[in-house]
Predict the 3D structure of the following.
Amino acid sequence: MAPTAVEVEYIRDVLNKSPTIHVEHNIDDHVAFGGDDQWYYNPATRRFDLSRGSVRRLTVDADDGIRNHRGVMIDPDKTLLVIIDMQNFFIHPKFRDHSEGIKTVQPLLRVIEKCRKEGIQVCWLNWGITDYDLKVMPPAVTRGFNKALAHEKGHGWHVGLGAMLPPEQGGERCLFQGTWNADIYDPLKEYMTPQDVRFDKARMSGLWSPELPMHQWLRESGKKTLLFAGVNTDQCLLGTLTDAYSWGWDCILLTDCAGTMTDVLGAKEVCDYNVATNMGFVTDSEAFCAAESV
């Protein structure tokens, strides 16, 4: 039922009122961003405060080139490290030479160690499909995994979602839940703990629908700030980050913990630029691991 004219005027009156601020900031010295759920920017320190009044804050530095700021302050208790698609199928040498993905492993391990120390939870988000997923999957998604159809069903880089991999690559269905090829890349798996959370996805993004388990878990957990790492920067990582941005989560890209096989085209630089100047913030493992609690 459409609202009455009186109800419309009431809604307008509410929207035109300034929101009540419940954080310890002098608004004269800080710039507020957002409605009820606000960030604050301090022109003197050139830092964004994303902590929303938290008692404990972690200050993460960043350069002031294209980003025009000196970093962010986050609440570790409401922060989540999201590691995307660091799976055997994408990283392991049995499948391909993903040199850019391999480069991310050591800085990512340092970031994970820092997260454990600061009480930041870790999330593993990966392709992990079922027969039902294949049944309802849009054709554009399945086409992305069948780029080599001319080479006898595409065995190799793009074998096809759900198809049987050749024996030398495990002989299991491609990126199916429970298979070795869909599991966490072996050198990273030993660093997982029972406190970590893990979600499967069947799209480039793990947050495209509010009905997805990860989407529901994030809302219920109260997490506000998401640190992004993994592969590929311009594909599944960017897809998930973009949806997170649109749904209202804070997004921070750890640039040296993210890699892509299309970097020869400058894809990574473009992603870094767009995230840093629009969708969130960009830093690296060195700055993150040097972050201090205040």
Summary: The CA atoms of residues 91 and 97 lie 7 Å apart.
